[in-house]
Amino acid sequence: MRDWADAHRPHWLHTILVGFDLLGQRGIALPLVLVVAAVLSIRWRTPRPLALAVVAGAVNSVLIEVLKQWTSRGAPHHGSIAMFSGDPAVEYPSGHVSNGLVYYAVLAFLVAWPPVARAVLRWLPGVLVFVGTTYLGWHWLTDSVGGYLLGLLQVLLLTRLRWPHRETG
Q1: Of the candidates 31, 29, 43, which has an alpha carbon nearest to the alpha carbon of residue 102?
Q2: Which end of the chain has fewer CB atoms at under 10 Å, N or C?
Q3: Residue 29 near residue 100 (C-beta atoms within 8 A)
Q4: What is the pTM of this model?
Q5: What digits encode the pLDDT tens for the residues 76-94?
């Protein structure tokens, strides 16, 4: 799959896919979530939106880093293909894909948008990051699947928590 994607990636598509991958960049997504949560915490006079964002960001970051160090797997163009290889490259599971699910799910939970718009915000970024990072050859398909499943598990757990509902109106 890596070789096919490398051979069938026109420049214009590469540029679009890099944009998809950036949706899952922790340095971009997490500050966005924290700012929105902080504004809502001030507006609603409760620390709960900010606490949700901080807890979700911390749990996601710790899980990703621990799993990456433990599995020790290289990227498609660099490092070992084998899991648990002792390779210093740490690509499994894809943190970008997990971020694309977790951070945007927190945003979707906090914003007072129509249900369809919140569903799109919750699920679309993770799918776009999955496609982008895999097609660019920055992660193996299984890295992206692992990141998606880890992010999905976190999103499902977040929806089970008893957080106050966002205010509408």
Answers
A1: 29
A2: C
A3: yes
A4: 0.88
A5: 877 778 888 877 878 899 9
